[in-house]
User: What shape does this take?
Amino acid sequence: MNWKRFAVFTLPLFVFLLFAGQVWSQTTIANGSIQGTVTDPTGATIPNAKILITNTDTQQKLEMKASSNGTYSSGPLIPGNYVVRVESSNFKTTELPITVQVGVTSAGNVQLEVGSASTVVEVTGNAVQVNTEQAIVQGVVTQDQIENLPVNGRNFLDLAQLEPGVQIQDGENFDPTKAGFSSISFGGRFGRTARIEVDGLDVSDETVGTTTTSIPASAISEFQVAQSSLDLSNELTSSGAVNVATRSGTNAYHGEAYGAFRDSSIAANLLALCRLLFSASSLEAISADR
Assistant: This one.
């Protein structure tokens, strides 16, 4: 074996794998992520700052350190509300609230103020902003929209039409066997090849299009509708993708109940209705004879 040639080809691959986790944000289909840079008041980066990311709903924590150039990346995170706590010697500790959305890399840039590390600065009013970390054309339908907007039917894809240029396409346009199923048309493109995933599981019908299953809207936390310039966190598709994230548990009790009550006392009196219709038809017949 030519060891020199072997080393020439394998060494770059080893270096690539070693630093790949630090270079990319690691957003996956069913998750989001946070990446950012820690700087001082002059804009210079602060290396090796201590990073603590906490999910405010579950109190799950993730600890890490910023790199030598002040950058950090959380890796995949379940969509939800988080607080990024950044500590470094000779600087005030800063806490930054961030909302992580499915399929989206959220910016977590933090500028530390000079002072004691025991002093905590809480950044407020950090709402979801324009995504500057990804070039993808996409939007996210949030849980508030799913819960509060009326939907005519129980198709979980109906709310995707909230995004510009998105329309529901009837499955019978693809095949007669897909009656009752739907797919998504992005910008007038044929929806047969639209990629639809639920928690990272591909539920697309690879044969004739639409989906192979359906889920209730109440089980959805949020979903991403990606139209073009898709990144590597999406599956291969020529038209667009829908990434659905279902709800997960938190430290608080929550749930829902459904009840159906049907009783003859609040229903139509079919016997009386039949008599009324018979009487009306009899009067019309008598009037016609005269």
User: Anything to note?
Assistant: Residues 14-26 have pLDDT under 50 and may be disordered. DSSP finds three helices and 16 strands in the chain. The radius of gyration is 28 Å. Residues 29-122 form a domain with the Immunoglobulin-like fold (CATH 2.60.40.1120).
